[in-house]
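Sat 14:20. Reprocessing the chain from the morning session after the first attempt stalled halfway. Input below, unchanged.
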Amino acid sequence: MKKILYSLSKNKSGMVGLLIIVIFLVTALFAPALSPQEPNKIALQNRLTAPGQAGKDGTVYALGSDSLGRDILSRVIYGARVSLLVGLVAAALSMLIGCTLGLLAGYYGGLIDAVVMRLTDIQLAFPFNLLALTVLATLGGGLVQLILVMGVARWVQFSRIVRAEVLSIKEREYIQAAHAIGFKSLSILFRHVLPNVVAPIIVVSSFLVATNILSETTLSFLGLGVEASIPSWGSMLSEGRDFLDSGWWISTIPGLSIVFTVLGINLLGDWLRDYLDPKVL
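Finished this time. Tokens:
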């Protein structure tokens, strides 16, 4: 841990990324305590109040209000919960599916490898956005559906990377020694092979979280994301596009939140890629 913290402290972009991520994580976790108002509280008399101004009833809106008088700051804070939840859980689901299939395909080979690789080819043949739009338009939008679509549709990159690593690792001397002294295949797979493919898995996961956040934003913007009653950065962007002249802050504030969140994750991911690369070490 001391070595990791020392390496991170020497990387300014990684430190900036970690700081941004921590800020948004804390904001999401303590949203009820940090938000000044209920995110769905409607106050039509205060609609389109500019940032820092007070509405007709005297309520001050730090980041302004939208066309229904809802507080933008509160909605952005609660929107962080949705984006980070979808990004993290969907990435974890993709990692679980992809790593399991990649390990089995690379280690056992034969029919299992052929089936997994053909499934991978089929999955790659479908553009993600088209697949997600089709499934969500058929099943309907929602938080659970959104996570499942992203998790199931993006396991391919994990399986391909893990399979390639396993094909190399299983031929090494310590794996052959484990076979020679009688270890079972599953024990070798999870005790000796899996720990040696953790580094690329971590790097891919970090970048996939950012990709999932952008995808959630896109689908929510199109009306196929989370329910309308749940504040989302994507739906806020969609709601504000009709008020770019009179209420620029409605779309700008959630847009900047998306930019900084994805930027923070990518900066930290870049540091992780360099730190976990044995050629760099």
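The domain at 2-275 is CATH 1.10.3720.10 (MetI-like fold).
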